[in-house]
Design goal:
This protein is of the alpha+beta class. 21% of the residues lie in helices and 37% in strands. An eight-stranded antiparallel β-barrel has the order 1-2-3-4-5-6-8-9.
């Protein structure tokens, strides 16, 4: 009986050995590989006239202003490219030619280096606001490279030439 008890204790001790340094490193590497960085929210800034002049951002398309955001557009959606401003830098996006076409040759989706954006218009809400412009209720959604929403707002899209 005592021998059986001693053998059991030896077996339990063998099972509870500390992992080797290599085993620890492998375990830590596995945990780190499965960790995901937290979402970094995007804080878009108004694209002002000096930005438009400096970057030659003229042409037909749609500009988006968030509700309560004043008069400065935070996104421009044009035929071939889209633009946003973050931390004082103009971000450039390629129009997704496979996405829906909006008024004045704008597109619904634009892809950038780190983020992408979609501009959804309520077509039924369109109201003429000028000789060559119409205003639409709209929603802008910006996603990071892992398809996580980093900015979303309802607002007004003005489309025109």
């Amino acid at each position: 009986m005592r021998i059986g008890f001693a053998l059991t204790l030896l077996m339990l001790a063998a099972c509870s050995e500390e992992p080797s340094e290599d085993e620890r490193r492998a375990a830590v590497a596995e945990v780190e590989a499965h960790q995901e960085a937290p979402v970094e929210l995007l804080v878009p800034e108004a694209i002002l006239y000096p930005d438009i002049e400096k970057n030659n951002l003229y042409g037909a398309g749609c500009s988006f202003v968030p509700d309560g955001g004043g008069m400065g557009a935070i996104a421009l959606a044009m035929a071939d490219e889209g633009y946003m401003k973050r931390r004082g830098e103009i971000l450039q996006f390629a129009a997704d030619k496979g996405s829906d076409e909006l008024p004045y040759l704008a597109r619904r989706k634009y892809d950038g280096k780190d983020v992408s954006f979609t501009l959804d218009l309520d077509a039924d809400s369109g109201q003429r606001s000028g000789e060559d412009t119409s205003d639409y209720s709209a929603e802008l959604t910006v996603r990071d490279g892992k398809d996580r929403v980093v900015y979303s707002s309802k607002g007004l899209a003005q489309c025109g030439a």
